[in-house]
Amino acid sequence: MAKAARAVSFKHTAAQGELYLQKICKLPVGLIPLKPVKGKLIVGHSETGHHHVVDAEEANVYQDPNNPLNLFIEAIQPTALVHLRPTDTHGPIAINEGDIVQVNVGREYNPPTKSLVRSRD
Predict the structure, then answer these.
(1) Alpha carbon 84 to chain centroid distance?
(2) Which of 2, 13, 67, 101 is deepest in the core (most CB within 10 A)?
(3) Mind listing the pLDDT tens digit for each residue in 65-111?
(4) pTM of full prediction above 0.85
């Protein structure tokens, strides 16, 4: 869990930058587990390397194969969603043991392709 800043807890919904979090009761079926990168699970990818992550020893993260902009965090012990940026960072968000959180990544409309794309930093 993040040591530098105290993680803020939430009851139902929260946001961290382009990520929107909502607690849910159970995981949907057919999800794909993400693989850790240097002990972290990337919940929000950043082109600049300032990812939003949880510790791989504290949580599992899954992706919806039908919608890669929907992720799910399953806390296997208390953890925090942390923004890996030294300045102008989003504060950590606490996730309690046993919580399941659906994470929707922000989307933007791309006029040339007439499609929705993931928000970027």
Answers:
(1) 12
(2) 101
(3) 998 889 999 999 999 999 887 666 678 999 999 999 999 986 566 67
(4) no
To the nearest 10°, report the CA torsion of 106, 109, 114, 117.
-30
CA 87, 117, 64, 76: dihedral to nearest 10 degrees? Answer: 10
Structure tokens given for 66: 């039908």
DSSP string, 10-69: -SSEEEETTEEEEEESSPPTT-EEPPPBTTEEEEE--TTS--EEEETTTEEEEEETTEEE
Of 45, 21, 67, nearest to 120 by C-alpha is: 45
> Tokens standing for 4?
């530098």
The Cα–Cα gap between 3 and 67 comes to 33
